[in-house]
Design brief:
The complex is a heterotrimer of chains A (about 300), B (about 375) and C (about 450). Chain A has helices at about 60-70, 105-115, 155-165, 170-175, 195-205, 215-235, 260-270, 285-295; strands at about 10-15, 25-30, 35-45, 45-55, 85, 100, 120-125, 130-135, 140-145, 250-255. Chain A is of the alpha/beta class. Chain A has 2 domains: about 10-115 and about 280-295, ATPase, nucleotide binding domain (Nucleotidyltransferase, domain 5); about 145-270, Nucleotidyltransferase, domain 5 (2-Layer Sandwich), CATH 3.30.420.40. Chain B has helices at about 5-10, 10-20, 35-40, 60, 65-75, 95-105, 125-145, 150-175, 185-195, 200-215, 235-245, 255-260, 270-280, 295-305, 320-335, 350-365; strands spanning about 25-30, 45, 85-90, 110-115, 225-230, 245-250, 310-315, 340-345. With about 450 residues, chain C is of the alpha/beta class. In chain C, a hairpin with a 5-residue loop joins strand 8 (about 310) and strand 9 (about 315-320). Chain C folds into 2 domains: about 35-150, no CATH class; about 200-430, Rossmann fold (3-Layer(aba) Sandwich). Classes of the chains: A alpha/beta (about 300), B alpha/beta (about 375), C alpha/beta (about 450). Chains in contact: A-B, A-C, B-C. Chains B and C meet through helix 4, helix 6, strand 4, helix 7 and helix 15 of B and helix 5, helix 6, helix 15 and helix 16 of C.
């Protein structure tokens, strides 16, 4: 079987320090995305369990499976959960949910959980959408932007290119940053990920170049294009800055692509900032937000 | 009356009209087309509206245009508009011009006319240039239809069109009410149907609709939105907003309110009266050139219709609106009007669009006084 | 000498003179304080800014493409700044580069962006010419004057033109008068007429050059022409110096044409194009020369910048524009404007009339230039640069030409021009016609 370079490892975790039966409130959130699904369980405001899996062809089954994995062998059933929030493109398939929630508010809320109250700019780097969210100090969404008709800045683009170039998705980011002190080459097309992919493949051909690009430089060119497209989404957020996009000191990434340093470091570099960090997986943000909002 | 169906059946309607009256059908592309002249000459002016259908032809003829232009080109090349006798384009968006010109080049028998209308609409000479162009067009229409257009014909056409615009304005006024009984999708269907029907016939339908709408009970509380941006050709967006608990209570679209906003003031020189009407209409993004009127017009509409937020929807590759966004965003920001900008095609990706709309409306909800019922004090 | 060499070739002598003039302009441009405006002067058929003591008008297209040519990373930054302020990223690269620099507040070298003191948008030929001017005015409250370009279909209709002409005259007259009023500068009316005459003469020379390019072998390629055509338009020097250079250049091209001195010694394939090339990637001209293929220009170069006309006998020549009546004295400024504009209000837009409204003309053009093929760029961003391109290809194919399209963002925007793919396409195009790369 052909190796799928775009596959990332599925994860699940259950706290061994929390006894959910003693919790006053138990809430769950599920984020059924186009290529991945996450579920979390929160007990008295603390993360108790989570799971992150690939979305299969059967969204309903994925919704069941991801929540089951998040509760693990805890003995918890749907009936034990006070409120369940569902978000993501496939949220309608989570029939057990008590609330259906929009993704922007879920990621905003989830980012506050991951990065603390100081985060004011959230950038959700999903498989099929990019969302930039500006938050007020008190959790209110001030503004948000979603990608326009273009998939260049999406996680799916990276998945495609990893399969094309035979480079594991967990490695492409770091490789793209290892340029032996050289600066990034010109980015490939930022318009369309098909254009970008063909152009990237062409970069491997040395005949038209005075100095052929190394493999890592080719990755850099591709991921730079992605980062640039995402900057276009972030930059439209209100309040709008004057001149260059200003420093976003309180920036937090969520979503699967948030784990790709080749994308996030380039965004940080252009915005002249360092993003906030968290011990938790940034892919969980949507589900965490859904759980919190459902219980409010 | 199901106005949505009227829009969907527009080709059948025009064919039936033609069969019934023996008149000519004139398709028009750009918003500054003086329909009254065609109408006075006994023709049926119909706006060429985009509809997305499987398309394997347009790519051979055009590249990179906006989707409506592609779709319109496809409709012409695939024979949907074969019943049309003539097409007219007024100097405006060049993509639309492209669709016009491909249609003309593909059918030598088709009457076609390119009408120059200044981009500098405010010059003292603009009205004379426009009047002159209208005269040339009128002469051509007389040649086409074989009918000598009299002053009485022009007066009648102006009267029918003014009545039509007045009726649409009256329906639109109902949208100012707090819990307006008129949904955005209804209004848009009315306006779209209006642009493809005989106005005299439409006026009767509009009068009936108005009488019925005025008697309606107030709707439930909805988030009040304004729609700004490129032309739309169906009510998919409006319906999505309504399904999510909102209502587009006002728009600033070429084929929305701008189409019927201002009337012709009667003058002895009928063509000059028409020239002044068309030069003085709320400008489309392309013609809003010399003195910027569009941003202020948008603001005034937003105030008059008491909106909670605005949707700025631009067709991909729409350069007039792309170039205007700066000024539009600026005024919305300055006046603290929340807005959400996005790109669209003729059709909307339903999931993605509803994800945005849902989030935007949820963003607006906290603190919206009218949702907590304050207006009840006013007896509405 | 290469074995494949067929024709004699030698460098152009006019180069030295052109470089001298450019240096002179650069020295004078940097030493003068000027009121900097934005827009185009084509609508008056004369570079009227030179008739004011201290006014200069910058054009958006070259300014935008210059940004891309000099620094791809700065251009990208400009376009991002522009996109995030509302300008669609799928719009014209010239505009997004230029106004992006305005939004950033600085230029490539870090110097402050020279904010415009006035703007004159020019609608019609490309919608974005009209819309782009607004940006300077939306950004800052500066004076803006519209200068409509007029057009209609079909043969000349003098009656129809009357009102259009008055509108045209008004637009131009107002600009000149208001410039005086707003900036307190005195327009030199006599110089204005001189500039008009110089412009007409220069265009005649340019048309002659186009005629000589129909010779086999082509005495110059379009790449050479592009180096000259900025002199007198972008590079503003004394009108007489400009004319002297153009005369010299024209005479040299004529001599080359008549003595079969080729631009490309291996010329064995002749091709035309349409509209501007990718200014940042002109390499493709030289790349195709490896196959002995020479580019003869486009209607854009010869009609848009010269004043070439297709004659009924199938030849090309200087356009015979209707003239201002000789027995009518030029007394007032209005008379001067009328004389400069001429009786035909469509005159400044002949290029559009030829290319957009009569698109079959490109096949005629190809025939006159004795072209074997056509390379037509299709630009994703920029309506004026792309309009009609697909349809033109059909007419060319019908007339037996081999046509290749290549795709990119816009002449001033490298985003989507996949250079590797483009050169591959050129190889395939040449090879499909039985041509191979020649030995150097």
């Amino acid at each position: 079987m052909t190796r799928e370079y775009s596959k990332w490892p599925e994860t699940s975790w259950l706290s061994d320090s929390v006894d959910w039966r003693k919790a006053k409130t138990v809430a769950a959130g599920v984020d059924i995305g186009t290529t991945s699904a996450q579920a979390v369980v929160i007990c008295d405001g603390e993360l108790y369990g989570y799971a992150s899996i690939h979305t299969g062809t059967d969204f309903k089954q994925t919704a069941e499976e991801v929540l089951a994995k998040a509760t693990g062998n805890s003995g918890m059933t749907v009936k034990d959960i006070g409120a369940i929030g569902a978000t993501g493109f496939g949220k309608i398939n989570a029939g057990y949910a008590s609330k259906s929630l929009d993704e922007v508010h879920c990621h905003g809320k989830g980012a506050r959980f991951l990065y603390g109250p100081e985060v004011t700019t959230v950038v959700d780097l999903g498989a099929q959408t990019v969302k930039a969210i500006r938050l007020y100090e008190w959790d209110r969404v001030r503004d948000f932007m979603m990608n326009d008709i273009c998939a260049t800045g999406m996680g799916r683009n990276v998945e495609m290119v990893c399969d094309l170039l035979h480079v594991p998705i967990t490695e492409i980011g770091e490789k793209s940053l290892a340029l032996d002190g050289k600066t990034d080459p010109e980015p490939v097309s930022t318009t369309c990920y098909n254009f970008a992919s063909t152009e990237t493949m062409g970069l491997f051909r040395p005949e038209y170049r005075a100095e052929p690009l190394t493999e890592n430089e080719v990755y850099a060119s591709h991921l730079f294009a992605l980062a640039w497209r995402i900057l276009g989404v972030i930059g439209k957020l209100q309040p709008l800055d004057v001149g260059d996009i200003k420093v976003y000191e309180k920036l937090g990434f969520t979503g699967g692509l948030a784990k790709n340093s080749g994308v996030t470091k380039r965004i940080e570099r252009e915005l002249k900032t360092t993003a906030l960090t968290s011990d938790w997986d940034p892919m969980l943000a949507g589900a965490i937000g859904a759980a919190i909002l459902a219980s409010e | 009356m199901d106005f949505k169906k009227l829009v969907e059946d527009r080709h059948e309607y025009a064919k039936a009209w033609k069969k019934r009256t023996g008149g000519k059908v004139i398709g028009w592309f750009e918003p500054y087309f003086p329909e009254e002249i065609a109408y006075a000459a006994g023709a049926l002016p119909v706006r060429v509206l985009a509809r997305h259908e499987p398309d394997y032809i347009s790519d051979k003829w055009i590249y990179a245009s906006c989707y409506p232009v592609r779709d319109i080109t496809n409709l012409f090349l695939s024979g949907r508009y074969d019943y049309i006798d003539g097409i007219v384009n007024v100097e405006g968006c060049q993509w639309m011009y492209n669709a016009f010109e491909v249609a003309a080049n593909n059918n030598e028998k088709l009457f076609n006319f390119y009408l120059f209308l200044p981009d500098y609409t405010d010059a003292p000479t603009s009205k004379h240039a426009t009047r002159s162009e209208f005269q040339v067009y009128l002469d051509r229409m007389e040649e086409l239809t074989g009918k000598k257009v009299t002053e009485a014909d022009l007066d009648h056409a102006i009267e029918v069109y003014n009545t039509n615009r007045m009726l649409l304005r009256r329906v639109n006024e109902l949208r100012r009410m707090e819990r307006t009984p008129v949904l955005g999708s209804e209004m848009m269907n009315l306006v779209l149907a209006d642009q493809v029907m005989d106005k005299a016939e439409m006026n009767k339908l509009l009068a009936d609709f108005l009488a019925e709408a005025e008697e309606r009970a107030p709707d439930k509380d909805r988030i009040r939105l304004m729609l700004i941006g490129s032309e739309t050709f169906d009510t998919g967006l409006e319906e999505l907003v309504e399904a999510l608990g909102g209502n587009i209570v006002i728009d600033e679209l070429d084929n929305g309110t701008s189409y019927y906003w201002n009337n012709v003031f009667p003058m002895k020189d009928r063509l000059m009266a028409l020239a002044l009407r068309y030069l003085g209409r709320p400008h489309c993004a392309l013609k809003d050139n010399n003195w910027r009127r569009r941003p202020q017009h948008i603001f005034e509409l937003s105030e008059d219709f008491n909106i909670d937020g605005a949707l700025v929807a631009k067709q991909v590759y729409c350069h007039p609106h792309g170039s205007d966004s700066y000024a539009v965003w600026k005024i919305l920001r300055e006046r603290n009007i929340p807005y959400h900008y996005f790109e669209r095609g003729v059709k909307l990706p339903a999931d993605e669009t509803s994800a945005r709309l849902e989030a935007f409306m949820n963003m607006l909800k906290p603190g919206l006084n009218h949702l907590s019922g304050w207006h009840k004090a006013f007896g509405e | 000498m290469s074995k494949a060499q067929i024709w004699k070739t030698q460098p152009l002598e006019s180069w030295a003179k052109a470089k001298e003039l450019r240096a002179k302009w650069q020295a004078s441009a940097s030493s003068q304080e000027k009121i900097v405006g934005q827009g185009n002067t084509y609508t008056l058929n004369a570079d009227w800014s030179e008739a004011f003591p201290a006014v200069t008008i910058l054009e958006d297209n070259p300014a935008g493409s210059m940004i891309q040519n000099k620094s791809s990373s700065f251009a990208r930054k400009c376009r991002l700044a522009s996109e995030t302020r509302g300008w669609g990223r799928e719009l014209c690269g010239y505009v997004n580069n230029l106004w992006g620099s305005q939004f950033l507040g600085y230029q490539i070298d870090g110097d402050p962006f020279p904010v415009r003191k006035f703007v004159i948008p020019m609608p019609c030929q490309c919608d974005q010419h009209g819309k782009r001017g607004q940006q300077a005015r939306d950004f800052l409250p500066i004076p803006q004057w519209m200068a409509d370009r007029l057009t209609y279909f079909g043969d000349r209709d003098e009656k129809r033109e009357e009102a259009l002409r008055e509108h045209h005259v008004y637009c131009q007259y107002r600009v000149l008068n208001d410039m005086e009023r707003v900036f307190g500068q005195k327009l030199n009316d006599e110089k204005l007429l001189e500039l008009g005459e110089a412009d007409t003469k220069k265009k005649e020379y340019q048309t002659d050059v186009a005629i000589f390019m129909t010779y086999k072998p082509a005495p110059i390629s379009v790449k050479d022409l592009y180096s000259f055509y900025t002199i007198g338009s972008l590079t503003k020097v004394d009108p007489q110096d400009t004319l002297d250079l153009w005369k010299h250049f024209r005479d040299e091209v004529e001599w080359r044409a008549k003595n079969q001195i080729a631009a490309v010694g291996t010329e064995r394939y002749r091709w035309i194009e349409a509209h501007p090339p990718s200014w940042h990637f002109l390499k493709y001209y030289r790349y195709l020369e490896q196959y002995g293929a020479v580019c003869l220009g486009s209607q854009y170069t010869h009609v848009g910048f010269g004043d070439m006309e297709f004659k009924p006998d199938g030849s090309i020549g200087n356009r015979e524009n209707p003239k201002y009546p000789e027995d009518t004295p030029v007394v007032t400024r209005e008379d001067a404007v009328r004389k400069l504009l001429g009786p035909d209000p469509r005159k400044p837009d002949n290029f559009k009339t030829d290319e957009y409204l009569q698109r079959g003309r490109i096949a005629e053009f190809a025939k006159i230039m004795k072209a074997d093929g056509a390379l037509l760029a299709i630009w994703r961003s920029g309506v004026g640069c792309t309009l009609t391109r697909k349809e033109q290809a059909m007419y060319l194919k019908e007339s037996g030409l081999n046509v290749l399209h290549y795709e990119g963002s816009q002449p001033g925007d490298r985003t989507d021009l996949d250079e590797t793919r483009f050169l591959d396409q050129l190889d395939a195009w040449m090879e499909s016609q039985g041509l191979e790369k020649l030995d150097d």
